[in-house]
Amino acid sequence: KEQELEKDVIANSKNIFGNKTIYIDIKHRIKGDDNKNSSIPDGYLFDYTDEHKPRLYVVECETQQHGVRDHIAPQITQFGLNFASAQNDIKKNIINGIDDKSLLNAVALNANYRNIDDMFDHIINNENFGVIIPIDEIYPDLEKAKKLFAFNIETLQFKKYVCGNSILYIFVTFYDCNIFNGTKD
User: Does the predicted model carry a pTM greater than 0.70?
Assistant: First the structure.
């Protein structure tokens, strides 16, 4: 069910995240400092809605059946720890995972960076780490756990209903969550 949710999020990524975002569907292992505790996010979101301050988020699709204590919180903790130690590897994979380099170059120049490499160096090394969790059902323990992390975590409810040949998606969009610049208003 989680793989199906992930495919649906990717297929609807422009509707969920907006036109000035790029969903980067890459799965690569992020290794920790000890090379033992690695993690694999479902993807990344490059957000250039604020043209002067593009952001990068880890995206992890989840289902309500996964517990916060034994699955989601440990996984998010690993992402945070490993993100800090694998910045060059992440940058390389992100840049290679985006096909439209001319768009990236335009975003970089518009945001006063020398080039794509300089922009991602800055974003990955200097910006606040953020996580977006599209999930089929948001429940109270998950909302409580988000407050325990020092970095921004946003949950986006994404539901799918199927009736015969008809499919209906109901979801909260990225911008309905007010996570511009990593702060929640």
Answer: yes
